[in-house]
Amino acid sequence: MSVVAVQKVAIFGHEQAKTSALQLLQRAGCLEITPQAVAANNRNEDNLEIEINELASAIKLLESRSGKKKSFIEGFVPYKEKVTAELLRQTASRFDWRALLDQLNGLETRLANLKTLELTLKAEIGILLPWQIITLRLNQLNSLNSAGLIIGTIKKTLLTACTTELTALTRTLVIERLREDKQFIYLAIGYLNMDSQSINEILTKFNFIKATLPATDKSPRQELARLQGLLLEAQQDQKQIGSELKSLSRHLTSLRYIYDYLYQKLLLKTAQAGLSQTEHTFVLTGWLPKKQIRPLADKLQQSSQLLWLVEISPEAGEIPPTLLSNPAVFGPFEVITRIFGLPQQKEIDPTAPLSFFYLLFFAICLSDVGYGLLLAIISYFLLKKLTLSEGGKNIVQLLFWGGLAASLIGVATGSYFAIDLQLLPEPWRSGLKSLQLIDPIKSPLNVLLMSLALGVIQNLVGLSLAMYWKIRQREFVSAIIDDGLWLYFLTALVSYIIIPFVAPGYSELNKILVIIGAALLVLTQGRAEKGLIKKAIFGLLSLYRTTSYLGDTLSYSRLLALMMTTSIIGMVINIIAGLTSQSIPVVGYLIMIVILIIGHLFNLVVSVLGAFIHAARLQLVEFFGKFYVGGGREFKPFRPLTKYVIID
Amino acid sequence: MDLGLGLAIAGASCAAFLAACGSAWGIAVASEAAGGVLTEDPDKFGRLLVMVALPGTQGFYGFLGAFYIMMKINLLGGGVAVPFSSGLQLFFAGLPVGFAGLVSGYYQGRAAAAGIFLIAKRPEETGKAIILPAMVETYAVLGLLATILLVSGIKL
Hints:
The structure holds two protein chains of two kinds.
Chain A: E1 6-14, H1 18-28, E2 32-33, H2 47-65, H3 72-76, E3 81-83, H4 85-94, H5 97-128, E4 147-155, H6 159-169, E5 173-180, E6 184-192, H7 196-205, E7 209-210, H8 220-248, H9 252-273, E8 276-277, E9 281-289, H10 293-303, E10 307-311, H11 334-340, H12 351-366, H13 369-385, H14 390-413, H15 426-435, H16 444-472, H17 476-502, H18 507-524, H19 532-542, H20 545-554, H21 558-583, H22 587-627, E11 645-647
Helix pairs in contact in A: 1-10, 2-9, 4-9, 5-8, 6-7, 12-14, 12-21, 12-22, 13-14, 16-17, 16-20, 16-22, 17-18, 18-19, 21-22
Chain B: H1 2-40, H2 45-53, H3 57-72, H4 84-121, H5 126-153
Helix pairs in contact in B: 1-2, 1-3, 1-4, 2-4, 3-4, 3-5, 4-5
């Protein structure tokens, strides 16, 4: 319906006009350039790319150090500032960002070194800490000629056995218990050098852990004080660098501008490298929406006499890209189509038909006046306050319309923040009750039937779309025999179920209509097979497809379930809030208000998420299954692409 | 009479606790995956939170089923007499949402974890990643529907 027709074009020109032509094309943003195969080896060593990467990591560093947290909403829908191209250019030329990058690099290296130093110091302190009791200078420990000193730890449980064995070995031995903790005893063992080997053997046997202390001319206590001083210094230095980085993060905005400015330059350069080129001329090919051919050709003509645009035919097997164009009302619903995938160039755009159903199903799932209006108001403010990206804007708009629709359905179900209408004062009670068409909690069966009816309708619409499309593609036989016949058969089948309740007199006639439909299906659906028996079998088996339609229809029962989830959870919140206000005097009312606000906000979020997902699923699985193939390639025009700002 | 009431309450609590267990399990599976992805890219928190929340609905469905049974026997408003046979019926009516929630909650968590890895590599495909686990949820919804229809059909 609204897949835009695109045309392959080629633009020729003189070398002189190349840069200006590309700039013009980037500004116009309507041409998808087909990259040339030769482009790959044409890559010149690119400073620009390196600079952009450096900028990106600088921005990341400053962002992490700025102390500003991204807001929760930004996590879902990142928003971009609107700025002019001129401002970007000026910032890039005036701001000495290379110096800033150097400074940042220096700070980062220092920070990394300090971190390593801190870890080393901590490890050394950890080793020394248990040995503070030693008052000797550490380099004195092993300074004797004929005697040695071992210090280390041993498990408490092994101590007695170990000392027994040691004292049995030699009498020229001193074992000194320095201290103990939960598991270990800290020992110093003095011995004569001649016993050294056998002592070591025994110690190893009992898992004695030797401590290796640094041989300095200080006592452990003095050494510890020195190390701790160094540690403190390292930590303070880190803090100082941190605050320096924090204050440098004031340049973030400028850096972002420059990033996007350079990124545009890079895009231009890449496009330039992708052109086919002779000594004095260049040529580029690409896809252009048919409506844009004349305007773009005119623009090129105006800018230079040395540029021509011609229409060419695509190469064999080349697939044209898909560009959707829908009226503004349907625009937001493209989000749903995109989840599945874009239509192929020659396919129906399902956005318009799904938008009606999507909105209705979303509204049924949410179905509360309070929640609907709240959602609409929040979405409205998001749209006004934030400069959202295209996709983010579409989703918020979708939620806005969904909220409004949900409040309409909410009037019909008599749901206002799930308040029990019986408790309202008189004019309100009867007024709102008279507007209420159906109470989902008291009569879930009616809502279920309504949901299934909607399912039947959407299934039939899907089949009709398939038929419509095949007719437009001039596949008349398949349109009538496959989709048309099924459309007829299913309609007859549904009315066979309904008719006893509406017009019982006609049920015999309807029975005949159903049988005719089934017979026709059996006769025709096996037509692609060879041989009479195979044709008959496949014809008969095709009736089995009825069950898949049945399954598709039953899937719509989720509308009832989601509707009830919203209203019952809301109701429970109200009941709990009511109980607290009654059971606790005075403060109870405060708690009640808190429970109401948090509870209903929570329910709103959960319900909106459910409504969004399940309404979408019904489109993508049940509805699209009837007629939609998808798998189109997105039209990606050559245009300014930015990360942080939107260029006005 | 007391046994009937007890059975009805047993049905309600089975509906609530089995489905809640399924949700807890599923969310844990999804959270583990999300935690891993967040170590690399903390900015994805918002999107991943949605993915982690997906298996949470089973718990609500179970709670809803339980609440529906409670309303049926007017438990919060003083209670009505529940004959033994009706109590038994209500007990069995509570099971579909309980068991469907338990199993589908866990498996939806696994599907959500797969979606989380998808988002980690291709954040632009968040829409698809959200839709796939919703396929699993369908059967929890059917369980809830069965419970609601069964409960509303039972005569006290």
